[in-house]
Amino acid sequence: AQSVSQHNHHVILSEAASLELGCNYSYGGTVNLFWYVQYPGQHLQLLLKYFSGDPLVKGIKGFEAEFIKSKFSFNLRKPSVQWSDTAEYFCAVNSDNYGQNFVFGPGTRLSVLP
Amino acid sequence: DADVTQTPRNRITKTGKRIMLECSQTKGHDRMYWYRQDPGLGLRLIYYSFDVKDINKGEISDGYSVSRQAQAKFSLSLESAIPNQTALYFCATSEPPGQGPDTQYFGPGTRLTVL
User: CA-to-CA distance for B55 and B67, rounded, in angstroms?
Assistant: First the structure.
């Protein structure tokens, strides 16, 4: 079965620190990749997505992610985090082989200290 | 996102009770999904529907049932609630592949507590 793993359960950073959240998936075929963010008490919102083309994808709020097919990875990065980035981050994958359904990772909680 | 709404937003119930969670969307999407979110487990798919006549089980469908009353409405029922169904439940919609960005749009969630 297709699966998504996220390397860190909880990341704690100070403001202005750089961020990288890891995401790996298990399926070897064509995939679409997503990062969603869930701010405290809110629903999931799309940060960015990759379908094809340039493997470096830029999203909202200064986030970017790089698709590395050989590593089955789609890591999320931000050069300088802010207190307002405190949230839970979910990586998700969908593919034709999985009926176009989405498989989510377990999430990484990011706490940014002011 | 006001395009996808869920009712109720919070519910506390007792073991053995039947519960229905409702989802409505104004995005005009054919595809709708129900997930539950548990700490450390992310989102897990309960049921999904690709159109009004299409209902499919997801990863964790046991103990749940759904009804797709119309394109815009997708309800999730717990026939006999049990405490380990205490979770945050999300409804989502998406467009079919090839008709635009294949992104999911989530409702605000329903927090269900089963005592």
Answer: 8
Inter-chain CB proximity B45 and A102 less than 8 Å = yes
The answer to whether B48 contacts chain A (CB < 8 Å) is yes
Which of A3, A33, A38, A44 is the best residue to mutate to test the B interface, defined by the most B CB atoms within 10 Å of its own CB? A44
Opening angle at CA B91, ends B9 and B81, nearest 5: 65
Encoded tokens for A5: 């793993």
The beta strand positions in A1-114, using DSSP E, are 4-6, 10-14, 19-21, 23-25, 31-38, 45-50, 56-58, 64-68, 73-78, 87-95, 102-104, 108-113
The residue to which tokens 């700490």 are assigned: B39
CA A80 to chain B, closest CA, distance in angstroms equals 25
Residuewise pLDDT in 10s, chain A (114 residues): 678 999 889 999 999 999 999 999 987 677 889 999 999 888 889 999 998 889 999 999 999 999 999 999 999 999 999 999 999 999 998 876 555 678 899 999 999 998
For B32-88, write each residue's pLDDT tens digit: 999 999 987 889 999 999 889 999 998 899 999 999 999 999 999 999 999 999 999
Residue in chain A closest to B58 (alpha carbons) equals: A101
Rg (CA), chain B: 13
Beta-carbon separation of B56 and A99 below 8 A: yes
User: Is B63 an interface residue toward A (CB < 8 Å)?
Assistant: no
